[in-house]
Protein backbone atom coordinates (compact mmCIF):
# COMPACT_ATOMS: atom_id res chain seq x y z
CA UNK A 1 0.00 0.00 0.00
CA UNK A 2 2.82 2.37 0.92
CA UNK A 3 4.79 1.72 -2.25
CA UNK A 4 1.58 1.95 -4.27
CA UNK A 5 1.06 5.44 -2.83
CA UNK A 6 4.66 6.35 -3.58
CA UNK A 7 4.29 5.19 -7.18
CA UNK A 8 1.03 7.12 -7.52
CA UNK A 9 2.80 10.21 -6.18
CA UNK A 10 5.67 9.76 -8.65
CA UNK A 11 3.20 9.29 -11.50
CA UNK A 12 1.40 12.44 -10.46
CA UNK A 13 4.64 14.44 -10.33
CA UNK A 14 5.77 13.14 -13.72
CA UNK A 15 2.37 13.89 -15.19
CA UNK A 16 2.60 17.48 -13.90
CA UNK A 17 6.05 17.83 -15.43
CA UNK A 18 4.77 16.53 -18.78
CA UNK A 19 1.88 18.99 -18.71
CA UNK A 20 4.28 21.82 -17.85
CA UNK A 21 6.57 20.89 -20.73
CA UNK A 22 3.62 20.68 -23.11
CA UNK A 23 2.49 24.19 -22.15
CA UNK A 24 6.05 25.54 -22.50
CA UNK A 25 6.24 23.81 -25.87
CA UNK A 26 3.01 25.49 -27.00
CA UNK A 27 4.19 28.89 -25.81
CA UNK A 28 7.48 28.52 -27.66
CA UNK A 29 5.65 27.51 -30.83
CA UNK A 30 3.59 30.70 -30.58
CA UNK A 31 6.77 32.73 -30.04
CA UNK A 32 8.36 31.12 -33.09
CA UNK A 33 5.29 31.89 -35.20
CA UNK A 34 5.39 35.51 -34.00
CA UNK A 35 9.09 35.81 -34.83
CA UNK A 36 8.50 34.31 -38.27
CA UNK A 37 5.85 36.97 -38.91
CA UNK A 38 8.23 39.70 -37.77
CA UNK A 39 10.91 38.24 -40.00
CA UNK A 40 8.56 38.29 -42.98
CA UNK A 41 7.71 41.92 -42.25
CA UNK A 42 11.41 42.78 -42.05
CA UNK A 43 12.01 41.07 -45.39
CA UNK A 44 9.14 43.05 -46.94
CA UNK A 45 10.63 46.26 -45.58
CA UNK A 46 14.01 45.29 -47.03
CA UNK A 47 12.45 44.76 -50.42
CA UNK A 48 10.68 48.12 -50.21
CA UNK A 49 13.86 49.94 -49.23
CA UNK A 50 15.88 48.13 -51.88
CA UNK A 51 13.40 49.21 -54.54
CA UNK A 52 13.45 52.85 -53.40
CA UNK A 53 17.11 53.31 -54.20
CA UNK A 54 20.02 55.30 -52.86
CA UNK A 55 19.02 57.95 -50.36
CA UNK A 56 21.12 58.01 -47.19
CA UNK A 57 18.13 57.69 -44.84
CA UNK A 58 16.83 54.72 -46.80
CA UNK A 59 20.24 53.06 -46.61
CA UNK A 60 20.38 53.61 -42.86
CA UNK A 61 16.89 52.24 -42.50
CA UNK A 62 17.81 49.30 -44.70
CA UNK A 63 20.84 48.60 -42.49
CA UNK A 64 18.66 48.76 -39.37
CA UNK A 65 16.13 46.41 -40.91
CA UNK A 66 18.90 44.01 -41.94
CA UNK A 67 20.24 44.04 -38.39
CA UNK A 68 16.76 43.43 -37.00
CA UNK A 69 16.30 40.58 -39.47
CA UNK A 70 19.57 38.98 -38.31
CA UNK A 71 18.51 39.41 -34.69
CA UNK A 72 15.13 37.84 -35.37
CA UNK A 73 16.73 34.93 -37.20
CA UNK A 74 19.00 34.36 -34.19
CA UNK A 75 16.00 34.40 -31.85
CA UNK A 76 14.13 31.96 -34.09
CA UNK A 77 17.14 29.62 -34.11
CA UNK A 78 17.45 29.81 -30.30
CA UNK A 79 13.74 29.20 -29.77
CA UNK A 80 13.79 26.30 -32.22
CA UNK A 81 16.69 24.73 -30.33
CA UNK A 82 14.91 25.25 -27.00
CA UNK A 83 11.77 23.75 -28.46
CA UNK A 84 13.68 20.66 -29.58
CA UNK A 85 15.24 20.30 -26.14
CA UNK A 86 11.83 20.59 -24.49
CA UNK A 87 10.42 17.98 -26.83
CA UNK A 88 13.26 15.59 -25.98
CA UNK A 89 12.75 16.23 -22.27
CA UNK A 90 9.00 15.75 -22.62
CA UNK A 91 9.57 12.45 -24.44
CA UNK A 92 11.88 11.30 -21.62
CA UNK A 93 9.26 12.15 -19.00
CA UNK A 94 6.57 10.36 -21.00
CA UNK A 95 8.80 7.29 -21.25
CA UNK A 96 9.55 7.41 -17.53
CA UNK A 97 5.86 7.78 -16.79
CA UNK A 98 5.11 4.71 -18.92
CA UNK A 99 7.80 2.73 -17.09
CA UNK A 100 6.41 3.80 -13.71
CA UNK A 101 2.91 2.87 -14.83
CA UNK A 102 4.12 -0.56 -15.92
CA UNK A 103 5.86 -1.12 -12.57
CA UNK A 104 2.73 0.02 -10.74
CA UNK A 105 0.52 -2.34 -12.77
CA UNK A 106 2.87 -5.26 -12.05
CA UNK A 107 2.80 -4.45 -8.34
CA UNK A 108 -1.00 -4.26 -8.34
CA UNK A 109 -1.12 -7.62 -10.13
CA UNK A 110 1.24 -9.16 -7.54
CA UNK A 111 -0.81 -7.80 -4.66
CA UNK A 112 -4.01 -9.04 -6.25
CA UNK A 113 -2.52 -12.52 -6.60
CA UNK A 114 -1.37 -12.45 -2.97
CA UNK A 115 -4.84 -11.43 -1.82
CA UNK A 116 -6.38 -14.25 -3.85
CA UNK A 117 -3.89 -16.80 -2.42
CA UNK A 118 -4.56 -15.60 1.12
CA UNK A 119 -8.30 -15.83 0.60
CA UNK A 120 -7.93 -19.44 -0.58
CA UNK A 121 -5.68 -20.22 2.40
CA UNK A 122 -8.23 -18.67 4.74
CA UNK A 123 -10.96 -20.84 3.22
CA UNK A 124 -8.85 -23.95 3.77
CA UNK A 125 -8.19 -22.98 7.38
CA UNK A 126 -11.86 -22.27 7.95
CA UNK A 127 -12.73 -25.72 6.56
CA UNK A 128 -10.15 -27.31 8.90
CA UNK A 129 -11.59 -25.39 11.84
CA UNK A 130 -15.11 -26.61 11.00
CA UNK A 131 -13.83 -30.15 10.68
CA UNK A 132 -12.00 -29.94 14.02
CA UNK A 133 -15.07 -28.44 15.70
CA UNK A 134 -17.13 -31.29 14.33
CA UNK A 135 -14.55 -33.77 15.72
CA UNK A 136 -14.61 -32.04 19.11
CA UNK A 137 -18.38 -32.14 19.17
CA UNK A 138 -18.33 -35.80 18.21
CA UNK A 139 -15.82 -36.57 20.94
From TrEMBL:
InterPro entries in the cross-refs: GOLGA, GOLGA_cons_dom
Highest taxon above the source species: Eukaryota
Upper taxonomic lineage: Eukaryota, Metazoa, Chordata, Craniata, Vertebrata
Domain Golgin subfamily A conserved: from-to ranges: 78-139
Protein keywords: Coiled coil
Region called Disordered, residue ranges: 1-20
Gene expressing this chain: Golga2
Compositional bias per record (Polar residues), positions renumbered to this chain: 9-20
Pfam families the UniProt entry points to: GOLGA2L5 (PF15070)
GO biological-process terms attached to the record: Golgi organization
GO CC annotations on file: cis-Golgi network; Golgi cis cisterna; Golgi cisterna membrane
Protein name: GOGA2 protein
Amino acid sequence: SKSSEEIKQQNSELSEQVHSLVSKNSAMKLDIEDLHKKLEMAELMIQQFSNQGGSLDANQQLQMVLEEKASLETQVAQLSESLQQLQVERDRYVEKLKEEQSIWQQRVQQLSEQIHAMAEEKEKHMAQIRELEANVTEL
